């Protein structure tokens, strides 16, 4: 049986351990971010491209919206929508497919046999951006020319298999897209040939749409740039990527340091609670052993114990010898450490008292007075003896 306070202390330890587990899981998720896959199902994509599909999707969206960050996608299709004011980067099937790959990456469906598919009408909902009308320019199977040029300048690797893959009713299937992209990459061969920016130095690209697809009346559209990538722009892009990676590394180090300090503190509190519980257990064990032994030592004497030998011994009250004998016997018992109340007597000559009979205090009767050897009488009441 648990002692008082032990059960609550153990429950507190269980709660602390549960909090530690939850804290570690939350910390690992926060450090990983929303662009890291939770399983190894999309390792094939990482081996081909060098980054997760979430990172590719985020980099493409940041061409038009530098402040865009991949959120935690929900299982309600579509996981994300094209709601930027400049729709050039997201209003196409390529960005939509990358968002679906990112959903499988975040939620851990990429390792399953079927993955997470999109039902019919999902692509249309993605293009509407949460509204009633579709985004524009809707280039569907490819990027607009300006976006494709930016993809080349930023060296974003977009697999060739993502171009021209679309279902007319707006659905999408993970396994089919995976297998088609893998086959396309193997056919194109290793190196830059498997990516859309493999021909970035060409003035035209078969995978891009014409400039006429861009709205003529749109304002704030970035000015057209040359398709030729200069060494200066590449150096700037690489510098930005290195700076961003360094910033992420510093943030991860800071997060790990703070998490480690908090974890050590919680472990210290748990250790203190365990020691406290052990000390309380020892105290209760000591009290239990003392109570079972009959007290805290020989000095705890029960005054209501009747000495059977004394109860069965006849007592007489005749003469002073009876008083002297009783006093000497009691004195011996006191020296021996046995304290028992005196056995009562009566004038009726009753000598044997049963041991089970309750003791009653009675008057011992008058004590005979005998003259002293000197012949003097005892002093009167209240008289001082000199």
Rg of Cα set? 49 Å
What is the number of strand segments?
Answer: 0
Given as residue ranges, the uncertain stretches (5+ residues, pLDDT < 50) are: 203-251, 316-320
The overall average pLDDT, rounded, is: 71
Number of helices: 10
Distance between the termini: 70 Å
By secondary-structure content and strand pairing, the structural class works out as: mainly alpha
Largest beta-sheet characterization: none
Name the beta content range.
under 5%
Series of H and E elements: HHHHHHHHHH
Helix fraction?
A: 40-55%
Estimate the global geometry from the Cα principal axes. rod-shaped
**Total separate domains:** 3
Explain the overall architecture.
This protein has 10 helices and no strands. With 386 residues, it is mainly α. About 14% of the residues have low confidence.
Give structural attributes:
single chain, 386 residues, mainly alpha, 3 domains, rod-shaped
In short, what is this structure?
It is built from ten helices and no strands. The protein is mostly helical and 386 residues long.
Give the arrangement of secondary structure elements.
Layout: H1 6-32, H2 43-49, H3 53-64, H4 93-107, H5 122-128, H6 145-153, H7 174-188, H8 231-292, H9 308-312, H10 319-336
